[in-house]
Structures are given as C-alpha cells and as structure tokens.
Write a structure and sequence with these properties.
two-stranded antiparallel sheet
Length: 268
C-alpha cells in the first residue's frame, strides 16, 4: 500500500492503481517493478506537507493495488480503462503508477480530457515502433485520438516523422531549456490529463528508467509543473520507473504523485 493511502474505496477522492505493464520496453526492462518501488520509497515521507498545510493521510486516497497485465496488451488496456472509469464514476480522481508509458493510453481513454499534458524526453508520436502499434513510443499519438491537443514538456528526441507531426497545430513541444518559463494555458472550461514519464528528467536525477536521455528537466521544474497544473487535471500518472538504480527514480515519482494530490486537494 502507498503510505497514507488507506481510505476505503467508497470514501475515496483519489484512487491509486498500479499498472505494472512491461511489454514493449525497447532498451532497459524493469518497468513492471515500478509500482512496487514507488510504494516502497514513499515509506519514509512525512505525512505533513508544509507547502499546503495538509496531511496526506487525511486526503482520502485509496490504494487499489496493482491491475496485473495480460498477455494481450490491447485487452489489458481495455480492462485497465474500465477499472479507471469505474473510479471516475464513483467520484475519485485516478492516479496511475506504471509500468511502461503505454498504460497512459488507458488513463486518457478513461478520463477523456480536452488537453493531454506530458512530461517526457520523447515525442511518442509514432504510428508504431518495431511493428507494435501499442508501443510505449506511440502514447501521445494515441492520446490525440481522445484529446483535442497535446503539450509535451521536456521533449528532446524523436524520429524525423515525429518532429514533422509535432509541427502540426494540435501539438506543442516545450524543450527543456524553455520549461522553466512555461505556464499552463488551459481555458477555464478545458480539462487535462497529466502524464509524467520519469525519463523527462535528466538521468542524473532519475537513472532508473527504460530509455535515458541526457539534458533533461530538474526535479524542481517537474514539481512546479505538477503543482500549477493540478487544479485542472482529472487524471494523473507517473510511469517508466524501473529497478535499475538505487531508488532515485522511484522516490522522485512518489514525491511528484504526492505533490499532485496536495495541490489538487487544495483547489477542491
């Protein structure tokens, strides 16, 4: 159980779901261990948040445990979407902990946001990767089947075709050097889904991930994004944490998840 996430399902304002999918990882595997590690490295956190003067254990967070993957990824995403949609109908904000980035597709389909915002080193705008249309490298393209537009924060690599697609009007790419100046630009009636791929951060801060890319974001930049965007967000995930470091990636992911809950709850 994620520490402090001990609310009953029927009382939950937030529902945490582990999604340990590790099917299309193209370099360093281990994302299946992400939910376990994020929960473990959150064990030492203080319950009290000085920034918002709230206690995490008082914010009605329910930990549903993991929804384990099936052999058929498309089938798994459908099942995961159904579980997340159920929580939405019950009035809880879904919090997904991956697992590879592909699990975001289920989250976006469940929430149906107007805007998809993603912290990511990669554009993830491919039609397929290695012959797989549900690869972790296709997530933003799938999100745009649901959302009206996408904002990718910290992207610094992609194929030529992806960069061409990113030039279209429904995609905004904010390179790492410009993220510190970026502010949410959502209209009052727009809803958002926020996905944090841990590889959006520089591997000096988050080396435990599948496809590291240098020259990324610093943790404080990510925390600011999460805090400022949270009031407009109806679904959140943090993904691509694996077990190939000493916990740096998992502890950052856990802190960002808590920062989201504190900021979102402050605006309710």
């Amino acid at each position: 159980m994620f520490p402090g996430a001990d609310a009953r399902r029927e009382d939950a304002d937030y529902a945490l779901v582990g999604a340990p999918l590790d099917a299309s990882t193209s370099f360093e595997p281990g994302a299946r261990f992400g939910p376990r590690r994020v929960r473990h490295f959150a064990e030492h956190f203080d319950d009290y948040d000085h920034h918002t003067e709230q206690r995490f254990s008082s914010l009605s967070v329910y930990d549903h445990g993991d929804v384990g993957p099936t052999a058929d990824v498309d089938e798994y995403l459908t099942f995961l979407r159904g579980a997340l949609s159920d929580f939405r109908e019950e009035g809880a904000v879904p919090l997904v902990v991956g697992g590879e980035h592909t699990v975001t597709v289920a989250g976006v389909r469940a929430v149906e946001p107007d805007v998809f915002v993603c912290v990511d080193a990669h554009l993830d705008l491919r039609d397929s990767y290695a012959g797989d249309p549900l690869s972790h490298a296709t997530v933003t393209r799938h999100a745009l089947d649901v959302a009206d537009r996408a904002v990718i924060l910290g992207a610094r690599t992609g194929s030529e075709a992806e960069w061409d697609r990113a030039n279209e009007s429904d995609v905004t790419v904010v390179p790492p050097a410009d993220v510190s100046d970026w502010r949410p630009d959502l209209a009052d009636d727009e809803s958002a889904y926020l996905s944090v791929d841990i590889d959006g951060f520089d591997p000096g801060y988050a080396p435990g991930t599948g496809t590291m890319e240098p020259f990324g974001l610093a943790p404080r930049e990510g925390r600011r994004i999460v805090r400022e965007l949270a009031p407009a967000v109806d679904g959140f995930d943090v993904v691509e944490v694996n077990d190939r470091d000493d916990g740096q990636s998992a502890v950052l992911a856990a802190k960002l998840l808590r920062a989201f809950v504190y900021a979102h709850a402050s605006d309710r």
